[in-house]
UniProtKB/TrEMBL annotation:
One Pfam match: adh_short
Family statement drawn from the similarity comment of this UniProt entry: Belongs to the short-chain dehydrogenases/reductases (SDR) family.
Lineage: Eukaryota, Fungi, Dikarya, Ascomycota, Pezizomycotina
GO molecular function: oxidoreductase activity
Listed name of the protein: Uncharacterized protein
Keyword Oxidoreductase recorded: yes
Keyword presence, Oxidoreductase: yes
Gene source species: Massariosphaeria phaeospora
Length: 326
């Protein structure tokens, strides 16, 4: 039986030095994202972009980081992943201002219980946690590739994921119905299972990476995802009070600090090698796909999602040559 308590984790090994490197951290206005940014500066990243939806919060984080590292180059840029337009504005501005990108940390995320739609027409958790991250990555991959060419070292994309993806409603509570598309399923009111939607949205990220690794080699960019375990951040503040109180008690006993979560994040982004490409890491170890993903249904959904995501992205960005439908 797994232990209630989470195992100890270790910081980055000595000797990591990101001097000369530019990193983007999404969701860098609170929780794990702030710590990722702080630790990137600790290992001497030359430029760190705080990609945030709330510029006032982002500026406050920037000031606090600068107080500890006055020589650092830290920029705050607007990014609201509820809306593709914001993603496109962000990547356009970034590419105009920067000729290199070494590290993209796709960390912004939500876990809301109310069904809400975004300006893109998709359910909010799916939009923020999955679809906008795919667009961000596709928009920035050419720059990550050219940076790898220039430096001779692989660039990196790391998504903050969650082990909860195994608890997807697709596995039992709301399976895909015949004739439904995957994205249509998650947009529909009938298939909304409030307590599983966070898991659903994180499942989509893992399915996309598992399919992507069949098409994209790891020679220039390593793309991976990790779960930091239960972390003491504000994420559970969205829960109703009757759940928040017991959750806070559990968190007090077992949750990791954002600092430790960022150790795990930076392990995936810096220490893990090409063997982690297209993989899901639980803490620092590569984990086998969950039962649903290995099932015939899971494999079918993985392929459908890939094809539907290509269609969705082809309306928004240039689809690279390595992407083709399955
Ligand atoms: N906490 C955990 O136990 C846990 C476990 C596994 C995985 N994770 C993942 O860790 C990541 C970070 O979460 P956290 O625990 O640090 O929680 P958090 O403190 O709530 O941080 C979430 C971050 O995402 C940002 N964000 C939310 N919606 C956004 C949007 N539409 N556009 C841009 N940014 C947006 C938030 O911005 P605001 O500051 O403006 O709200 C905040 O910076 C998430 O992907 C989460 O799913 C967390």
């Amino acid at each position: 039986m797994p232990s209630f308590f989470q195992p100890p984790v270790t910081p980055l090994p000595n000797g990591v030095n990101l001097h000369g490197q530019t990193a983007i951290v999404t969701g860098a206005s609170s929780g794990i994202g702030v710590e990722i940014a702080r630790q990137l500066l600790e290992v001497k990243a030359s430029t760190v972009i705080l990609a945030v939806r709330n510029l006032t919060k982002g500026e406050a984080v920037r000031r606090s980081l600068l107080a500890a590292k006055p020589e650092a180059v830290i920029k705050v840029m607007k990014l609201d992943t509820e809306d593709y337009k914001s993603v496109q504005n962000f990547t356009k501005t970034f590419r105009a201002e920067h000729s290199e990108l070494h590290l993209l940390m796709l960390n912004a995320g939500i876990g809301t219980l109310k069904r809400e739609m975004t300006p893109t027409g998709h359910e909010k958790n799916v939009q923020v946690n999955y679809l906008s991250n795919v667009l961000l990555m596709l928009e920035l991959l050419p720059l990550l590739n050219s940076t790898a060419d220039k430096t001779g070292a692989r660039a990196r994309v790391t998504w903050t994921g969650s082990r909860f993806h195994g608890a997807t409603a697709l596995a039992n509570k709301a399976p895909l119905q015949s004739g439904e598309t995957v994205l249509g399923h998650f947009d529909s009111e009938e298939s909304f299972v409030a307590f599983a939607r966070y898991a659903d949205s994180k499942l989509l990220c893992v399915l996309f990476l598992y399919e992507m690794r069949k098409h994209l080699a790891s020679d220039k960019v390593i793309v991976n995802t990790f779960c930091p375990g239960m972390v003491n951040s504000g994420m559970s503040d969205v829960l109703p009070i009757y759940l928040r109180l017991p959750m806070n008690a559990i968190k007090a006993l077992r949750a990791r600090s954002p600092e430790k979560a960022a150790w795990i994040a930076l392990n995936a982004a810096i220490v893990a090698g090409p063997e982690s490409h297209g993989e899901f890491l639980g803490d620092k170890a590569i984990v086998e796909p969950v039962a649903y993903i290995k099932s015939a249904d899971g494999q079918k959904v993985q392929k459908m999602l890939w094809n539907e995501t290509i269609d969705e992205m082809s309306r928004l960005t240039t689809i690279p040559a390595w992407i083709s439908k399955v």
